[in-house]
Design goal:
Blueprint (H helix, E strand, L loop, with lengths): L13 E5 L4 E4 L9 E12 L2 E8 L2 E8 L9 E6 L4 E5 L3
């Protein structure tokens, strides 16, 4: 769900951009929320007070920065939540 996509006629190609601070990671599925996907941790790079993760959702790769306290390892499953108001939409060809 994207709160910014309002005048598309459906089937249009769009580019979605998401700011890292609008992505949250959860060990357990957060109930009653939209834009939640189960991903697999591909890599984890510890950088002081945060960790840069590379996550897989099917064949898609998502890079996320999260607090070091989360402590995920490659192969772990994690739920990714993206706030609808944080998704920026651009129609292709404009």
């Amino acid at each position: 769900q994207c709160s910014r996509l309002s005048d598309g006629s459906g089937g249009d190609e769009v580019l979605l951009c998401i700011r890292p601070q609008d992505i949250k990671l959860h060990r357990e599925e957060p109930g009653g929320r939209t834009n939640v996907w189960l991903c697999t941790v591909k890599t984890a790079g510890y950088i002081g007070d945060h960790v840069d993760y590379e996550l897989l959702y099917g064949r898609q790769t998502l890079r996320v920065s999260a607090p070091a306290s989360l402590r995920l390892q490659p192969g772990d499953k994690v739920f990714v939540e993206i706030a609808p108001q944080g998704i920026k939409v651009w129609q292709q060809g404009q």
